[in-house]
Amino acid sequence: MLDCANAHKGLLAGIGLIILTAASLTVYLLSSANHNFNGREAVDIWELVLHILAFAALPSAIVKLWGSTYIKKQGVMCLDTWLIVLAQSGVSMYSLFKITAFWMADRGSLTNEFARLIQTLTQTLFIVYYWRIRTKKPDKPARQLITFLLLCNAAFWCINTLVLNRISSDIEMIDFYGRWGWTVMSRIAMPLNIFYRFHSTICLFEIWKNVYKPSTQNKTTIPLIEVSAT
C-alpha cells in the first residue's frame, strides 16, 4: 500500500495543471479543425508556464531535501537513469534544432525552447542524483513538490503527444529545413522527447515512493539459528 502522506497539496496543484492543459489542448484541437492556428499560440504560452513552474519546483525540492539525506547506493547508474539520460539527448536535439531555425530565420520565439532545455537538463540531474538518495526526516520534505513535478511531466507528455508530434504544426521548421528535412529530424528527436516525459513521470514516482523509506526497510536480516548441544 502506498503512503500518500504530505502529498495532497502537490496533488491538487498538479490536478489543476492537468485540467488547464486539457483546456489548452481542446482550444488547439478545435482551432486546428477550423484551419485556425491561433490555438497553437495558447498551447505554446501554457507550455512556457509549465516549464517555468516545473523549473521553479526543482531547486525548491533540493533546498527542502538539503542536509537531511544520505546516499543509499554507491557506484554506477541503473537502467532507468541511463534511459532518462538517453531520452534527454532527444529533448536537447529537438530544442537545438528549433533554436537554430528560429535564430537563423529570425522567426518564432526562442523563449520556450530555452526554457525546455534548461528545465529538462535540471530535471535529469535531479532524477539521476536523487534516485539513490534517502532522507532521514519523518515529515517527508519536498514530497509535495515531487508530486507536483510528477503531474507536470504527465501534462508535458500530453502536449508532446497531441501537439508537438504533429509535423504540420511546425510551419517555421518546415519553411527552414524543408518538409522532408524536418520530417526526418522530428522523427528522430520527437519519440525520445515523448519518452522523456513518460519515463520522467515513472522515475519521479519511484523517487516519490522510495526516497522517504526508512533505512530499516532497506536492510536484510539473517535469522539466527540456535544449535543446542546434546
UniProtKB/TrEMBL annotation:
InterPro entries: Otopetrin. The keyword Transport applies. The chain crosses the membrane at residues 12-33, 45-67, 79-97, 117-133, 145-168. Its main location: membrane. It is found in: Cell membrane. Belongs to the otopetrin family. This is Uncharacterized protein. It comes from Rhynocoris fuscipes.
